[in-house]
Amino acid sequence: MVIEWGKPETEKVFLIGLAKNSRQRQEVEMSLEELARLTLSAGAKVIGQYIQVRPKPNPAFYIGTGLVAKLKEALVEKNGNCVIFDDALSPAQQRNLEKELNTKVIDRPILILDIFATRARTKAAKLQVELAQLEYTLPRLTGAWVHFSRQYGGIGAKGPGETQLEIDRRQIRTRIAHLKEKLKKLSNQRSVQRKKRQNLFKIALVGYTNAGKSTLFNLLTKSQVSTMDKLFTTLDSTTRVMSSGYPCTVVFSDTVGFIKKLPHQLVASFKSTLEEVSLADLLLLVVDSSQPNYQQRIAYTHQVLSEIEASTIPYFLVYNKIDSCDGFYPENNNHDKTFYISAKFRQGINALQAEIIAYSHYLQKQKNDFKS
């Protein structure tokens, strides 16, 4: 059975989370808060949420049959038309849920992919997002899987699927190969550009999405990169070359933000973009210190850095948004290069810049000693 979805102006969404035990419930609650922000970023409205505590997911529905029945009633009562799960669903679970609930069901990875599709502006970003979407879709192709077709609008309908109603595996594999070839050419062009900068001091700003990296980048480089209080404002790496006030030429790079449960397809497809991070001499790990789970966000950032082979690069730990901390600053995690700033109000920037200059002096001396 193929469900024909309408195209509502604003989708009304229920959010679903699963906790393995009662101790994990608070963590799931915070994750659902973030999922709600993602949902709003995708243009939908959250009308309710459920958290179920069970030791492991139901193989057929991910959640228990009792909650499925309760959710079905709530969808009718509140006129809901979409359900978003905080974790990845298997193709079978997604199909079973859509059949039982008679509404659209998506998971966190496809929601993130959808937001990336909305935010993509440059050719490279659009190619990378499309590749990630298709690689996510490929194992889920069935008659009932309609997330990349014109059969409905709203969340999950942006990107490559807007051009086709039905795509078989052979066509998708052909398109994937074509996209990889295009991205390879772009990667080669970037490699040429990077070779010209290989003797320069390279600094990359990294961190959880919406931590304020672009605002800090603008302060350090006197730029005007777009900054908004939205998740994933930056998808492409932006570089600026600075020389005034530094002992050597410094290249700053602003990079795409990370997030909990970032689809591995995105990490893979954005590999060439993230090479700006893996080839850096120094990382500025920017943290939103106003978030209660800032420690987890630091851990997620380190996890992605490990995936892109950048975990051994020296870094400064930069706690941003201290203006929202009411004087209670986060711990320094026993990291000897920790800074507390407010990029919005330009607090602590001078101390950070002074340490960057000192570190560039140190690195330049090391390079000179190596040459001699």
Task: Characterise this structure.
By secondary structure, the chain is an alpha/beta fold. It has 3 domains: about 1-120, 3-Layer(aba) Sandwich (Rossmann fold); about 120-150 and about 160-195, no CATH class; about 195-370, P-loop containing nucleotide triphosphate hydrolases (Rossmann fold, 3-Layer(aba) Sandwich). It has helices at about 25-40, 65-75, 90-100, 110-120, 125-135, 170-195, 215-220, 265-270, 270-280, 295-305, 350-370; strands at about 10-20, 45-55, 80-85, 105, 200-205, 240, 250-255, 280-290, 315-320, 340. The strands form 2 sheets. Strands 6-7-5-8-9-10 form a 6-stranded mixed sheet, with helices on both faces. A 4-stranded parallel sheet has the order 2-1-3-4, sandwiched between helices. The chain is globular, with a radius of gyration of 22 Å. The relative contact order is 0.10. The model is unreliable at about 1-10, about 145-150 and about 160-165 (pLDDT under 50).
Structure summarized in a few sentences:
The protein is α/β, with parallel strands linked by helices and 372 residues long.
Topology:
Blueprint: E1 12-19, H1 25-41, E2 45-53, H2 65-77, E3 82-85, H3 91-101, E4 104-107, H4 108-119, H5 123-137, H6 169-195, E5 201-207, H7 213-221, E6 238-242, E7 250-254, H8 264-269, H9 271-278, E8 282-288, H10 294-307, E9 315-320, E10 338-340, H11 349-371
Helix pairs in contact: 1-4, 4-5, 5-6
| Physical arrangement of strands within the biggest beta sheet | 6-7-5-8-9-10
Integer tally of domains = 3
Largest sheet geometry: 6 strands, mixed
Structural class: alpha/beta
- What is the percent of helical residues? 40-55%
Gyration radius, rounded:
22 Å
Mean pLDDT over the full residue set: 83
CATH topology of the largest domain: Rossmann fold
Low-confidence segments, ≥5 residues, pLDDT <50? 1-8, 143-151, 161-165
CATH class descriptor of the largest domain: Alpha Beta
End-to-end separation in angstroms reads: 73 Å
